[in-house]
Design goal:
With 148 residues, the protein is mostly helical. The chain is built from eight helices and no strands.
Length: 148
């Protein structure tokens, strides 16, 4: 679960706090969950952790902002692209928090834009816009790091 939460909040101490809060909720609600199999239980725990991450980001008012495109690229990691999962993971972590959150929810977790807008209390168009910007940044990073 640590790695899962780290995709949203890339600060180790904050992730540890989020995990502690999340597992408290898991333990407090164990009697309410209907256990079918390990996969459904894991999905339930993951959902709690995602919600905790989103709650943390909302409290810190870290979710959405717009930067100039040049500023986004300049602040990104330089990654030698060997198309390895670790490099892709680092590129995703280099995204601004708002873009990264929507990208994680849409591309990795599989939520629709309507579900994301409901979870984050934003317009569906904002979700689409944040995803488009995240993809554009990742594409530029791929191009930038694949040329010698």
């Amino acid at each position: 679960m640590f790695v899962h939460c780290y995709r949203y909040v890339s600060n180790k101490e904050d992730v540890e706090d989020i995990l502690a809060e999340g597992f408290i909720k898991v333990f407090n609600n164990l009697t309410k969950v209907e256990y079918r199999d390990a996969k459904s239980f894991e999905g339930w725990v993951r959902q709690i952790m995602v919600n905790e991450c989103l709650s943390f980001l909302r409290k810190k008012k870290m979710l959405f902002y717009d930067l100039e495109e040049n500023e986004l690229i300049e602040n990104s990691y330089t990654i030698n692209l060997d198309v390895d999962a670790q490099y892709i993971y680092k590129m995703i972590l280099s995204l601004p928090i708002g873009y990264r959150t929507v990208f994680n929810l849409y591309a990795i977790e599989g939520y629709s834009h309507a579900e994301i807008s409901e979870k984050l209390n934003i317009a569906t168009s904002t979700s689409r816009s944040q995803l488009t910007k995240a993809r554009a940044i990742l594409k530029k990073l791929v191009v930038k790091n694949s040329t010698p």
